[in-house]
Write a structure and sequence with these properties.
Length: 339
């Protein structure tokens, strides 16, 4: 096979074959890695010499060598070292989690990974996939993965120690029996995006253009995904107003109430437990009265009242909401022009 590759490259050179993209897959030997690396170097200028990206060659490397926490049969650490060199030439690489662990030597929760730890990477991969898919409680993860609760707890502890996941704590109110407890979420933004949109569709990533992949698998769920981060932006905005004395309450703590059947995006509270409640809309075309009614219903479940309501929208507000705010000065409407 190595001789065939060498002969093929020679024919390509004779024919003046000049690819726009080079994609590598399974490689049988270190010699083949060297051969492919030489070819890439001959076709791809150094990035610091490229004045226009179109002058270069896009190189994608799939370092196929491991899965399920272990190397494939017949592949040793010498191949891993050679593959590290090959991926250094790439613009895009698409390892699975096990391959990423072997390439970097990094295991969640530790600076360096032993071979035994690398064999467990598939467990981390499975847990992160289900958390990103919305299964955010320990019992849900147990039912979806089939792993014991004790085993999941150990891996969750390691992921938390690496700041990859965190335990989300609901803002404390009188409606504790209606709050959702023991909720986990992925803290690392890159990891969250990867397991939400890329990991479930890796096979399609090979077959589709970037535009097709985005339109098919990312764009339909992106606004729902971004709403969580929009809540964080709105909280930062309130803290800034608080620091400059521009809020009607001087708030001391702020958080999200996580309910069993619905959330309150923001509860901000002062020293005497007066509340400012926030609703944050990134996903929908408008903030509607129906959304406000849902907020009021969740407040009853949380057993809180509000002195002020801050309604945030990435788009606009329904006319009925605008009229409500004009008549009731407890309601403040904030759109993207203010944020």
């Amino acid at each position: 096979m190595t001789d065939y590759m060498r002969d093929t490259i020679k024919v390509w050179d004779e024919l003046g074959f000049d690819p726009d993209c080079i994609c590598t897959g399974f490689v049988l030997s270190e010699e083949q890695v060297e051969l492919i690396g030489d070819y890439i170097r001959s076709r791809k200028p150094r990035m610091d010499e490229i004045q226009n990206v179109d002058n270069g060659r896009l190189v994608m490397v799939d370092p196929i060598m491991a899965d399920g926490g272990k190397l494939y049969n017949g592949i040793g650490m010498e191949r891993v070292a050679a593959m590290r060199k090959l991926v250094s030439y790439s613009d895009v690489m698409v390892p699975n989690m096990t391959e990423a662990g072997f390439l970097t030597g990094i295991c969640p929760g530790r600076e360096r990974a032993s071979a035994a730890e690398l064999r467990e990477l598939s467990v981390y991969e499975t847990i992160l996939y289900y958390i990103a898919s919305g299964y955010d409680k320990l019992n849900e993860l147990h039912l979806k993965t089939g792993y014991s609760r004790a085993k999941i707890s150990v891996y969750m502890k390691n992921l938390a120690a690496s700041d990859i996941i965190e335990k989300a704590v609901s803002f404390e109110t009188g409606g504790w029996e209606n709050a959702k407890k023991g909720v986990y979420r992925i803290r690392d933004n890159y990891v969250n995006f990867w397991f939400r949109f890329i990991y479930p569709h890796l096979s399609a990533l090979y077959m589709m253009s970037a535009e097709e992949f985005y339109d098919t698998y990312i764009e339909p769920g992106l606004n729902t995904y971004l709403n969580r981060y929009f809540v964080g932006v709105c909280m930062e905005y309130l803290w800034l107003l608080n620091l400059t004395g521009k809020l009607p309450l001087h708030i001391k703590k702020m958080g999200t109430w996580i309910g069993k059947t619905g959330n309150i995006d923001i509860i901000a509270q002062n020293e005497v437990r007066e509340n400012l409640v926030g609703l944050c809309n990134w996903e929908k075309p408008q903030v509607t009265m129906e959304m406000c009614e849902e907020l009021f219903a969740n407040m009853k479940k949380a057993k809180i009242s509000a002195n002020y309501y801050f309604l945030f929208s990435a788009s606009t507000f329904e006319q009925a909401v605008v009229e409500m705010a004009e008549q009731d000065k407890r309601f403040v409407l904030i759109d993207m022009s203010e944020l």
